Write the C-alpha coordinates for this entry.
Amino acid sequence: MDAVAIKRSLAGGRLRCTPQRYAVMAFLMEHGGHPTAAEIFEAVNRVDPRSSRATTYNNLRDLVKAGLVREVAVEGRAARFDAKGMRHHHFICDRCGNVEDMEWYDVPRPTSGSLGRRIVRECELIFRGLCTKCGPRHASR
Amino acid sequence: MDAVAIKRSLAGGRLRCTPQRYAVMAFLMEHGGHPTAAEIFEAVNRVDPRSSRATTYNNLRDLVKAGLVREVAVEGRAARFDAKGMRHHHFICDRCGNVEDMEWYDVPRPTSGSLGRRIVRECELIFRGLCTKCGPRHASR
DNA sequence: ATATCATATTAGACATAATCTAAATTTTTC
DNA sequence: GAAAAATTTAGATTATGTCTAATATGATAT
Protein backbone atom coordinates (compact mmCIF):
# COMPACT_ATOMS: atom_id res chain seq x y z
CA MET A 1 0.00 0.00 0.00
CA ASP A 2 1.20 3.44 -0.93
CA ALA A 3 2.56 5.20 2.14
CA VAL A 4 1.92 8.53 0.49
CA ALA A 5 -1.77 7.72 0.07
CA ILE A 6 -2.06 6.91 3.75
CA LYS A 7 -0.33 10.10 4.79
CA ARG A 8 -2.52 12.05 2.42
CA SER A 9 -5.61 10.52 4.00
CA LEU A 10 -4.51 11.55 7.47
CA ALA A 11 -3.64 15.03 6.31
CA GLY A 12 -7.05 15.25 4.64
CA GLY A 13 -8.63 14.51 8.01
CA ARG A 14 -6.36 17.09 9.64
CA LEU A 15 -4.81 14.43 11.79
CA ARG A 16 -1.14 14.30 12.64
CA CYS A 17 0.71 11.41 11.22
CA THR A 18 2.07 9.62 14.26
CA PRO A 19 3.54 6.14 13.95
CA GLN A 20 0.65 4.62 15.89
CA ARG A 21 -2.06 6.38 13.94
CA TYR A 22 -0.34 5.63 10.67
CA ALA A 23 -0.20 1.95 11.57
CA VAL A 24 -3.92 1.81 12.30
CA MET A 25 -4.86 3.58 9.09
CA ALA A 26 -2.44 1.52 7.02
CA PHE A 27 -3.77 -1.70 8.45
CA LEU A 28 -7.35 -0.74 7.67
CA MET A 29 -6.51 0.31 4.13
CA GLU A 30 -4.57 -2.85 3.44
CA HIS A 31 -6.72 -5.30 5.31
CA GLY A 32 -9.89 -4.70 3.35
CA GLY A 33 -12.03 -6.65 5.83
CA HIS A 34 -13.83 -5.45 8.91
CA PRO A 35 -11.58 -6.06 11.89
CA THR A 36 -12.49 -5.32 15.49
CA ALA A 37 -10.49 -2.86 17.59
CA ALA A 38 -8.86 -5.78 19.38
CA GLU A 39 -7.80 -7.35 16.09
CA ILE A 40 -6.39 -4.05 14.89
CA PHE A 41 -4.49 -3.56 18.12
CA GLU A 42 -3.04 -7.04 17.92
CA ALA A 43 -2.10 -6.81 14.26
CA VAL A 44 -0.48 -3.43 14.58
CA ASN A 45 1.55 -4.47 17.59
CA ARG A 46 2.67 -7.72 16.06
CA VAL A 47 4.55 -5.69 13.48
CA ASP A 48 5.83 -2.98 15.78
CA PRO A 49 4.88 -3.25 19.44
CA ARG A 50 4.77 0.41 20.26
CA SER A 51 1.08 1.12 20.52
CA SER A 52 -1.12 0.79 23.57
CA ARG A 53 -4.69 -0.39 23.61
CA ALA A 54 -5.95 3.05 24.59
CA THR A 55 -4.11 4.61 21.68
CA THR A 56 -5.66 2.18 19.25
CA TYR A 57 -9.10 3.11 20.53
CA ASN A 58 -8.23 6.82 20.53
CA ASN A 59 -7.01 6.66 16.97
CA LEU A 60 -9.98 4.68 15.76
CA ARG A 61 -12.24 7.29 17.29
CA ASP A 62 -10.29 10.10 15.70
CA LEU A 63 -10.38 8.40 12.31
CA VAL A 64 -14.11 7.84 12.55
CA LYS A 65 -14.67 11.46 13.61
CA ALA A 66 -12.58 12.64 10.69
CA GLY A 67 -14.73 10.60 8.34
CA LEU A 68 -11.88 8.39 7.13
CA VAL A 69 -13.09 5.22 8.78
CA ARG A 70 -16.51 3.74 9.33
CA GLU A 71 -17.58 2.00 12.51
CA VAL A 72 -20.11 -0.79 12.16
CA ALA A 73 -21.98 -1.80 15.30
CA VAL A 74 -22.92 -5.48 15.40
CA GLU A 75 -25.46 -6.79 17.92
CA GLY A 76 -23.83 -8.60 20.77
CA ARG A 77 -20.32 -8.29 19.38
CA ALA A 78 -17.44 -5.87 19.21
CA ALA A 79 -17.70 -3.07 16.68
CA ARG A 80 -15.99 -3.49 13.30
CA PHE A 81 -14.07 -0.88 11.39
CA ASP A 82 -13.28 -0.27 7.76
CA ALA A 83 -11.52 2.42 5.81
CA LYS A 84 -13.96 4.34 3.67
CA GLY A 85 -12.77 3.57 0.20
CA MET A 86 -15.36 3.06 -2.46
CA ARG A 87 -18.92 3.47 -1.26
CA HIS A 88 -20.53 0.21 -0.31
CA HIS A 89 -23.26 -1.35 1.76
CA HIS A 90 -22.82 -4.05 4.38
CA PHE A 91 -23.87 -7.60 4.88
CA ILE A 92 -23.86 -8.96 8.45
CA CYS A 93 -24.02 -12.68 9.07
CA ASP A 94 -26.66 -13.68 11.62
CA ARG A 95 -24.62 -16.62 12.73
CA CYS A 96 -20.94 -15.63 12.80
CA GLY A 97 -21.32 -11.85 12.96
CA ASN A 98 -18.91 -11.27 10.12
CA VAL A 99 -19.33 -8.10 8.13
CA GLU A 100 -18.86 -8.12 4.36
CA ASP A 101 -18.99 -5.40 1.75
CA MET A 102 -21.82 -5.31 -0.73
CA GLU A 103 -21.87 -3.51 -4.03
CA TRP A 104 -22.98 0.09 -3.74
CA TYR A 105 -26.18 1.32 -5.25
CA ASP A 106 -28.24 4.38 -4.58
CA VAL A 107 -31.11 4.12 -2.18
CA PRO A 108 -34.20 6.28 -2.56
CA ARG A 109 -34.48 8.91 0.15
CA PRO A 110 -37.49 9.16 2.44
CA THR A 111 -40.12 11.77 1.66
CA SER A 112 -39.35 15.13 3.22
CA GLY A 113 -42.63 14.85 5.09
CA SER A 114 -41.46 11.81 7.04
CA LEU A 115 -38.15 13.50 7.76
CA GLY A 116 -39.58 16.21 9.96
CA ARG A 117 -36.81 18.42 11.28
CA ARG A 118 -34.26 15.66 11.24
CA ILE A 119 -31.09 16.29 9.28
CA VAL A 120 -30.02 13.19 7.42
CA ARG A 121 -26.29 12.98 6.86
CA GLU A 122 -26.22 9.53 5.36
CA CYS A 123 -28.25 6.53 4.64
CA GLU A 124 -26.90 3.01 4.81
CA LEU A 125 -28.28 -0.31 3.81
CA ILE A 126 -27.61 -3.40 5.89
CA PHE A 127 -28.34 -6.87 4.64
CA ARG A 128 -28.69 -9.68 7.13
CA GLY A 129 -28.70 -13.40 6.66
CA LEU A 130 -26.16 -16.17 6.33
CA CYS A 131 -22.76 -15.69 4.77
CA THR A 132 -21.24 -18.21 2.39
CA LYS A 133 -19.49 -20.04 5.22
CA CYS A 134 -22.59 -20.23 7.40
CA GLY A 135 -25.10 -21.07 4.65
CA PRO A 136 -27.26 -24.23 4.62
CA ARG A 137 -24.48 -26.32 3.11
CA HIS A 138 -22.18 -25.73 5.99
CA ALA A 139 -24.39 -24.67 8.88
CA SER A 140 -24.07 -27.23 11.64
CA ARG A 141 -27.56 -27.13 13.18
CA MET B 1 -52.72 -2.48 25.50
CA ASP B 2 -54.69 -5.63 24.89
CA ALA B 3 -53.43 -8.40 27.11
CA VAL B 4 -54.75 -10.98 24.69
CA ALA B 5 -52.71 -9.51 21.86
CA ILE B 6 -49.58 -9.77 23.95
CA LYS B 7 -50.29 -13.36 24.91
CA ARG B 8 -51.03 -14.17 21.31
CA SER B 9 -47.70 -12.71 20.27
CA LEU B 10 -45.85 -14.87 22.77
CA ALA B 11 -47.80 -17.95 21.73
CA GLY B 12 -47.00 -17.15 18.11
CA GLY B 13 -43.34 -17.20 19.01
CA ARG B 14 -43.82 -20.46 20.90
CA LEU B 15 -42.73 -18.82 24.10
CA ARG B 16 -44.32 -19.53 27.45
CA CYS B 17 -46.17 -16.65 28.94
CA THR B 18 -44.43 -16.03 32.22
CA PRO B 19 -45.11 -12.85 34.21
CA GLN B 20 -41.58 -11.61 33.54
CA ARG B 21 -41.67 -12.28 29.84
CA TYR B 22 -45.13 -10.86 29.53
CA ALA B 23 -43.99 -7.68 31.26
CA VAL B 24 -41.08 -7.21 28.85
CA MET B 25 -43.24 -7.77 25.80
CA ALA B 26 -46.04 -5.57 27.12
CA PHE B 27 -43.61 -2.77 27.87
CA LEU B 28 -42.14 -2.91 24.40
CA MET B 29 -45.54 -2.97 22.72
CA GLU B 30 -46.81 -0.05 24.79
CA HIS B 31 -43.67 2.00 24.94
CA GLY B 32 -43.29 2.50 21.22
CA GLY B 33 -39.77 3.91 21.55
CA HIS B 34 -36.44 2.10 21.52
CA PRO B 35 -35.44 1.43 25.11
CA THR B 36 -32.22 -0.21 26.21
CA ALA B 37 -32.18 -3.46 28.19
CA ALA B 38 -31.38 -1.48 31.33
CA GLU B 39 -34.35 0.81 30.77
CA ILE B 40 -36.66 -2.12 30.19
CA PHE B 41 -35.42 -3.85 33.32
CA GLU B 42 -35.95 -0.73 35.39
CA ALA B 43 -39.40 0.04 33.98
CA VAL B 44 -40.65 -3.50 34.38
CA ASN B 45 -39.44 -3.73 37.95
CA ARG B 46 -40.82 -0.37 38.93
CA VAL B 47 -44.29 -1.77 38.32
CA ASP B 48 -43.72 -5.22 39.78
CA PRO B 49 -40.27 -5.95 41.19
CA ARG B 50 -40.13 -9.62 40.44
CA SER B 51 -37.77 -9.82 37.54
CA SER B 52 -34.02 -10.15 37.70
CA ARG B 53 -31.59 -8.51 35.34
CA ALA B 54 -30.56 -11.85 33.87
CA THR B 55 -34.18 -12.70 33.14
CA THR B 56 -34.71 -9.44 31.33
CA TYR B 57 -31.71 -10.18 29.13
CA ASN B 58 -32.81 -13.80 28.67
CA ASN B 59 -36.28 -12.74 27.64
CA LEU B 60 -35.06 -10.08 25.28
CA ARG B 61 -32.87 -12.64 23.62
CA ASP B 62 -35.73 -15.13 23.36
CA LEU B 63 -38.04 -12.49 21.93
CA VAL B 64 -35.47 -11.48 19.34
CA LYS B 65 -34.85 -15.11 18.42
CA ALA B 66 -38.56 -15.66 18.03
CA GLY B 67 -38.74 -12.70 15.69
CA LEU B 68 -41.10 -10.68 17.87
CA VAL B 69 -38.61 -8.02 18.82
CA ARG B 70 -35.85 -6.28 16.93
CA GLU B 71 -32.47 -5.45 18.41
CA VAL B 72 -30.75 -2.34 17.10
CA ALA B 73 -27.03 -2.07 17.73
CA VAL B 74 -25.81 1.50 18.16
CA GLU B 75 -22.10 2.34 17.96
CA GLY B 76 -20.63 2.96 21.37
CA ARG B 77 -23.92 2.61 23.20
CA ALA B 78 -26.20 -0.05 24.60
CA ALA B 79 -28.42 -1.91 22.16
CA ARG B 80 -32.01 -0.75 21.72
CA PHE B 81 -35.08 -2.92 21.35
CA ASP B 82 -38.47 -2.51 19.75
CA ALA B 83 -41.49 -4.72 19.19
CA LYS B 84 -41.85 -5.52 15.53
CA GLY B 85 -45.15 -3.92 14.73
CA MET B 86 -45.53 -2.22 11.40
CA ARG B 87 -42.47 -2.42 9.24
CA HIS B 88 -40.26 0.60 9.50
CA HIS B 89 -36.75 1.85 9.02
CA HIS B 90 -34.59 3.52 11.65
CA PHE B 91 -33.00 6.86 12.19
CA ILE B 92 -30.06 7.05 14.60
CA CYS B 93 -28.91 10.40 15.96
CA ASP B 94 -25.16 10.96 15.65
CA ARG B 95 -25.13 13.08 18.75
CA CYS B 96 -27.49 11.58 21.31
CA GLY B 97 -27.71 8.03 19.97
CA ASN B 98 -31.50 7.98 20.06
CA VAL B 99 -33.23 5.68 17.65
CA GLU B 100 -36.43 6.76 15.92
CA ASP B 101 -38.78 5.01 13.54
CA MET B 102 -38.96 6.10 9.94
CA GLU B 103 -41.73 5.41 7.52
CA TRP B 104 -41.37 2.10 5.75
CA TYR B 105 -40.73 1.87 2.05
CA ASP B 106 -39.39 -0.90 -0.10
CA VAL B 107 -35.72 -0.95 -0.89
CA PRO B 108 -34.41 -2.40 -4.13
CA ARG B 109 -32.54 -5.65 -3.61
CA PRO B 110 -28.95 -6.13 -4.74
CA THR B 111 -28.32 -7.94 -7.98
CA SER B 112 -28.10 -11.69 -7.53
CA GLY B 113 -24.59 -11.49 -8.95
CA SER B 114 -23.34 -9.43 -6.04
CA LEU B 115 -25.07 -11.72 -3.59
CA GLY B 116 -22.92 -14.72 -4.29
CA ARG B 117 -23.95 -17.61 -2.08
CA ARG B 118 -25.14 -15.40 0.70
CA ILE B 119 -28.70 -15.87 1.86
CA VAL B 120 -30.33 -12.55 2.60
CA ARG B 121 -33.05 -12.76 5.24
CA GLU B 122 -33.74 -9.07 5.49
CA CYS B 123 -32.58 -5.72 4.45
CA GLU B 124 -32.76 -2.65 6.62
CA LEU B 125 -32.19 0.98 6.00
CA ILE B 126 -30.54 3.17 8.60
CA PHE B 127 -30.52 6.92 8.39
CA ARG B 128 -27.97 8.85 10.36
CA GLY B 129 -27.75 12.51 11.20
CA LEU B 130 -29.17 14.84 13.83
CA CYS B 131 -32.56 14.34 15.43
CA THR B 132 -34.94 17.23 16.05
CA LYS B 133 -33.57 17.83 19.54
CA CYS B 134 -29.94 17.80 18.42
CA GLY B 135 -30.37 19.81 15.21
CA PRO B 136 -28.54 23.09 14.50
CA ARG B 137 -31.10 25.14 16.42
CA HIS B 138 -30.45 23.35 19.63
CA ALA B 139 -27.03 21.82 19.28
CA SER B 140 -24.78 23.28 21.96
CA ARG B 141 -21.35 23.28 20.37
C1' DA C 1 -56.96 -31.62 40.09
C1' DT C 2 -52.23 -33.50 40.01
C1' DA C 3 -47.94 -35.21 38.39
C1' DT C 4 -44.54 -34.41 35.21
C1' DC C 5 -40.81 -32.25 33.08
C1' DA C 6 -39.01 -29.14 29.86
C1' DT C 7 -38.60 -24.47 30.38
C1' DA C 8 -37.79 -20.30 32.98
C1' DT C 9 -35.99 -17.59 36.89
C1' DT C 10 -32.59 -15.99 40.10
C1' DA C 11 -28.46 -13.72 42.52
C1' DG C 12 -24.31 -12.82 41.94
C1' DA C 13 -19.95 -13.96 39.81
C1' DC C 14 -17.77 -13.39 35.58
C1' DA C 15 -16.45 -11.76 30.86
C1' DT C 16 -15.85 -8.46 27.36
C1' DA C 17 -15.61 -4.06 25.18
C1' DA C 18 -14.54 0.36 25.65
C1' DT C 19 -13.42 4.68 28.25
C1' DC C 20 -11.02 7.46 31.56
C1' DT C 21 -7.11 9.41 34.20
C1' DA C 22 -3.17 11.81 34.88
C1' DA C 23 1.55 11.72 33.93
C1' DA C 24 5.00 11.54 30.35
C1' DT C 25 6.20 12.27 25.57
C1' DT C 26 6.23 14.14 21.02
C1' DT C 27 5.21 17.58 17.70
C1' DT C 28 4.33 22.20 16.27
C1' DT C 29 4.62 27.03 16.80
C1' DC C 30 6.62 31.20 18.12
C1' DG D 1 14.98 26.76 22.40
C1' DA D 2 10.76 27.75 25.17
C1' DA D 3 5.97 27.26 25.36
C1' DA D 4 1.76 25.31 23.83
C1' DA D 5 -0.85 21.77 21.84
C1' DA D 6 -1.66 17.20 20.65
C1' DT D 7 -0.61 12.41 21.50
C1' DT D 8 0.66 8.30 23.97
C1' DT D 9 0.67 5.29 27.84
C1' DA D 10 -0.44 1.72 31.69
C1' DG D 11 -3.63 0.59 34.37
C1' DA D 12 -7.92 1.54 36.75
C1' DT D 13 -12.64 2.00 35.87
C1' DT D 14 -17.14 1.75 33.71
C1' DA D 15 -20.71 -0.20 30.91
C1' DT D 16 -22.91 -3.86 28.97
C1' DG D 17 -23.98 -8.36 28.72
C1' DT D 18 -23.35 -13.58 29.82
C1' DC D 19 -22.90 -17.63 32.74
C1' DT D 20 -23.70 -20.91 36.58
C1' DA D 21 -26.15 -24.04 39.08
C1' DA D 22 -29.77 -24.16 42.34
C1' DT D 23 -34.72 -23.38 42.48
C1' DA D 24 -39.31 -22.53 40.73
C1' DT D 25 -43.01 -22.65 37.33
C1' DG D 26 -46.26 -23.12 33.18
C1' DA D 27 -48.15 -26.28 29.98
C1' DT D 28 -49.48 -30.85 29.13
C1' DA D 29 -51.17 -35.37 29.88
C1' DT D 30 -53.45 -38.10 33.00
Summary: The helical segments of chain B are 3-12, 19-31, 37-47, 53-65, 112-115. The beta strands of chain B are 69-74, 77-83, 89-93, 99-102, 119-130. The CA atoms of residues 17 and 87 of chain B lie 25 Å apart.
